[in-house]
Amino acid sequence: MGNEDRFADRIIRASEVGQYTFCPRAWWLGTIEGLPSAHREEMDAGEFAHRRHGRQVRLSVVLVRLAYVLLALAVVAVILALMR
Hints:
By secondary structure, the chain is mostly helical. It has helices spanning 3-6, 14-22, 24-32, 40-83. It has two domains: 1-38, no CATH class; 39-84. The chain is elongated.
């Protein structure tokens, strides 16, 4: 199987385009040659930071939705109190 066949249906990710733009040789060595990066520790730390940030963003979305629900309940409680 040639390289053309091996990469025919391959999806190219934005991070890969960024890596190629920054250093085409590093992209070639990692993607085509399969060599590991010499900066694996830094990359792992970056991936961890991105995952942590993603969790924080998801939590903030949940908390905003909860705030809206509580606000709606407060409005309903005020309307019910005024109707008595």
